[in-house]
Design goal:
160 residues; alpha+beta; six-stranded mixed β-sheet; 6 strands; 41% helix; 22% strand; signal
Amino acid sequence: MKKRVKVLATLAIAGCVALGMGAKANAKTDAYLIKDKSTGTVYEFDRQALVKSFMNYNINGSDALYDDYKRLFSKNGLYAFHDDTKKYVDYEEVKKAFMDANINNKAFSLDDFTENKGATMTTVPKIVKDVTASNGKITYSDKDTGSQGAEDALEITSIE
């Protein structure tokens, strides 16, 4: 029951954030990322595909993409957002800004925040798993994030 409440609460926050998106921002949030805490693998879900999948889930009671998202999300929570400028922004940073805006009765736009205020994450792995579904089957494809990634940080070869 507690897991269900956590999932619903986080989806409610994500929904409020999504609904609060302003039209004036140039960057658009295009993906949600989840980091599996047990393996360290980061999964990227396309926002539009996930919205369609969520609608199918609510109409049909099941959808492979949303079921996979729900499975990973319920164990791990959100990790980051990606926008169409190729920028990754930490979920905790977005959550804090969202909560601060609401406490102070200010509007919040996820797209505006990721474009103008959110710091680009430096800990995103170089390769994440892009999650897609076709004919009810989930596919995980390697996606190069363009990041050095936390595990690919600078290597010191000698100190003189």
